[in-house]
Amino acid sequence: VQVVESGGDFVQPGGSLRLSCTASGFTFSSYVMSWYRQAPGKEREWVAHITGYHGNTNYVDSVKGRFTISRDISKNSVYLQMNSLKPEDTAMYYCNCGGYWGQGTQVTVSS
User: Fold this and answer.
1) Cβ atoms < 10 Å from Cβ of 48
2) 69-75 long-range Cβ contacts below 8 angstroms, 24+ apart
3) Residue 1: pLDDT over 90
4) Taking the CB of residue 22, how many other CB atoms lie within 10 A of it?
5) Residues facing 71 on adjacent strands
6) What is the rounded CA–CA span in Å between residue 48 and residue 90?
7) Are 37 and 46 in contact (CB under 8 A)?
8) Residue of 75, 77, 47 lying closest to 61 (CA atoms)
9) Nearest to 31 by CA among 60, 64, 1, 68
10) Pairing between β-strand 91-97 and β-strand 105-109 as defined by DSSP bridges
């Protein structure tokens, strides 16, 4: 099983980014896919998840209305569209697919 994230970047406050996560080696539609983040000196925090089969979503309160998680089962991929980014969104973002972690992608929000 391999999970690979991409899309992290440096962006100014109010900007947008789209993170991608591609997983291989298992049946994508059978699992919950999640995004987590970890800021320096803080514990890893769950951000959002989407169920593989029904596509039901849920978000941590701090990103509701700004972030959108989606998935493309045909591509074994999950995405995180992040809008209206704030400095406090700065973190390493990790994808978790069925318990498997990627290596993370860095998001930095700063002026």
Assistant:
1) 22
2) 69/33, 69/35, 71/28, 71/33, 73/28, 73/29, 75/22
3) no
4) 19
5) 78
6) 16
7) no
8) 47
9) 1
10) antiparallel
Cβ(4)–Cβ(102) below 8 Å:
yes
What tokens does 53 get? 């089969």
Q: Distance (Å, rounded) from C-alpha 43 to C-alpha 74?
A: 33
Closest CA to 25 of 49, 48, 4, 55: 4
Per-residue pLDDT tens for 31-77? Answer: 899 999 999 999 999 999 999 888 999 999 999 999 999 999 889 89
Q: What is the end-to-end Cα distance of the chain in Å, rounded? A: 38
Other beta carbons within 10 Å of 18: 14
Map residue 41 onto helix, strand or coil.
Answer: coil
Q: Is 96 helix (H, G, I), strand (E, B) or coil?
A: strand
Tell me what the pLDDT averaged over the chain comes to: 94
Contacts (Cβ under 8 Å, ≥6 apart) of 61: none
In one-letter notation, the amino acid at residue 76 is N
